[in-house]
């Protein structure tokens, strides 16, 4: 298998058994511990619909923090949670890989550094991380998108590492990807608006094609590598089983990272490599 040529051809790689079951379980346990200690002063809901993405201050200042975001369907009309907080969190983001020692060790390994270099990053920087719960029954659909829309560089260098910490199936909301779809080019950018908040800026008015998308049903321990321009999505979790995953996004430090990108980091915690 030539990973670089396969990646260039289809825009993604599926690498089974990339991490051990023990490493997956350790990350799950740590995430659950973090949620147990979360005392919400702000209830920020992460919209899984790309058209209605949350842009509140809690979200916008999360680039160099560990923040917790609720599922859209987590609350009753009166504002109370439908179920326990531990089963209501959509994700944790966006600097686990820098601020939590266990996530730091998981994210910075020789195997991942070698893979990033193999796929063409000259000076890889670990920019963003997310722990995604995909809760049973309420884990929302994530509509088709390109990661480079949110983590834009000039030239485009965004690279996604998505780790299945549990088996991902059609029933519990596995990823879907479009082979070769990264050759469409970037359709839009998610930027900070001058008047505050965020806005999508259209780069190419041609709709993002979803034709030929294939499901990526993968086993626990699998690494899915995603090109920043690749259209991908995930289904809703209609099952009684969660679909925990850990997602890590890299950019090349040789590229330009525009100031109007939504994700900003303090000069005290700049993105760093492996």
UniProtKB/TrEMBL annotation:
InterPro entries: Phytyl_CoA_dOase-like. Transmembrane segments: none annotated. It comes from Stigmatella aurantiaca. The lineage of its organism: Bacteria, Pseudomonadati, Myxococcota, Myxococcia, Myxococcales. Keywords: Iron, Metal-binding. GO terms for molecular function: 2-oxoglutarate-dependent dioxygenase activity; iron ion binding. It comes from the Bacteria. This is Phytanoyl-CoA hydroxylase.
């Amino acid at each position: 298998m030539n990973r670089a040529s396969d990646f260039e051809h289809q825009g993604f790689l599926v690498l089974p058994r990339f991490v051990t079951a023990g490493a997956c379980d350790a990350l799950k346990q740590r995430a659950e511990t973090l949620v147990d200690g979360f005392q919400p002063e702000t209830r920020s809901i992460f919209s899984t619909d790309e058209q209605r993405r949350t842009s509140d201050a809690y979200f916008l200042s999360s680039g160099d923090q560990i923040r917790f975001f609720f599922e859209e369907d987590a609350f009753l009309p009166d504002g109370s949670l439908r179920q326990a907080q531990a089963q209501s969190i959509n994700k944790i983001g966006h600097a686990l890989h820098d601020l939590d020692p266990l996530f730091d060790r998981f994210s910075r390994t020789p195997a991942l550094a070698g893979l990033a270099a193999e796929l063409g990053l000259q000076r890889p920087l670990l920019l963003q991380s997310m722990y995604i719960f995909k809760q049973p029954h309420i884990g929302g659909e994530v509509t088709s998108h390109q990661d480079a829309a949110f983590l834009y560089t000039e030239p485009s260098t965004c690279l996604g590492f998505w780790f299945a910490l549990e088996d991902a199936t059609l029933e519990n909301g596995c990823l879907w990807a479009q082979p070769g779809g990264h050759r469409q080019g970037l359709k839009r950018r998610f930027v900070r608006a001058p008047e505050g908040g965020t806005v999508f800026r259209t780069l190419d008015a041609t709709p993002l094609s979803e034709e030929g998308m294939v499901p990526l049903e993968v086993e626990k321990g699998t690494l899915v590598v995603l090109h920043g321009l690749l259209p991908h999505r995930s289904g809703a979790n209609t099952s009684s089983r969660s679909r925990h995953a850990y997602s890590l996004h890299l950019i090349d430090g040789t590229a330009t990272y525009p100031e109007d990108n939504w994700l900003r980091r303090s000069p005290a915690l700049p993105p760093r490599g492996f």
